[in-house]
Amino acid sequence: MRLFDLPLRVVSLYPDIMNTYSDRGNLLALQYRALQQGIEITLEEISVGDLLPAECDILLIGGGQDEEQKRISKDLKAKASQLQNWAEEDVSILAVCGGFQLFGKWYRDNKGNYLEGTEVFDMTTIAPRTAKFRAVGDIWVTSLIEGIGDVVGFENHAGQSYLGPHVSPFATVKFGNGNNGLDSTEGAVYRNAIGTYLHGSVLPKNPMLLDYLLSNALSHRYNENLEPYFSSPSPFVLQAQSTAMDVTRRKSEKR
Ligand code: GLN
Q: Which of 26, 94, 169, 217 has its CA 20 to 30 Å from the CA of residue 13?
């Protein structure tokens, strides 16, 4: 049964470079869920030197260590104005960890390298040169976006992100560090753009977040506010999320 006639236009940014903790799994989960709902998608994988396509309904970028971030930062900055336009046009965006940091205003790593971001998010990130901060471990957050609920994943970042007045947090931290380990915020939201520190990859075991991104992409494609009906997530997906929550809770109680 085909739900919609028009294919969703998916853009995956630097999949060959920004793929820490197999964040490519987010694309696989999206492809599977779209297929399951009878939604056709087209995919453009864009890396250094490639031009962005004219249109996009959903954009994904994964995480990367400082070296990988340095490799893409100039090319990403050159794409910034089009990425900002897509954010303003309510394209559905998911930026994870290192990709999330570079969708902010800038990121300074713990060697002092200053990397400009796309400025989609009013956010800055610093990896302290002195303090030995590195957020590593299972993380469980509660999204502030209605209908998404709890989200689980894994975090590993030295950067501490601080949100400015023109962006909202994606979630509050239940167990783990989140943006900076200080203010209990996790991630960022600007219009339909979501940034998060959650690897895992995050979409395969967080079905409500996946459906939220897919639903926004459909609304963008059809230029109307759709509330498409999606079939319930499979029991395996819900079991994976529940197991991750149990593991995170147990590990946090031991800390
Ligand atoms: N290099 C960044 C940091 O350490 C992001 C790491 C990542 O994407 N896992 O904060």
A: 169
Q: How far does residue 53's CA lie from ligand 1's centre (Å)?
A: 27
User: Can 97 be counted among the known catalytic residues?
Assistant: yes
Taking alpha carbons only, the member of 194, 205, 197 closest to residue 244 is: 205
Domains of the chain: 8-254 (3.40.50.880)
- What interhelical angle do 80-88 and 66-78 show, nearest 10? 80
Q: What's the pTM?
A: 0.97
Binding site membership of 65 for ligand 1 (Cβ less than 6 Å): yes
Ligand 1 pocket member 157 (CB < 6 A) = yes
Q: How far apart are CA 54 and CA 60, in angstroms?
A: 16
Residue-wise pLDDT tens digits, 143-175: 999 999 999 999 999 999 999 999 999 999 999
Active site residue 56: no
Q: Tell me the per-residue pLDDT of 27-54, one tens digit each, with 9 for 90 and over.
A: 999 999 999 999 999 999 999 999 999 9
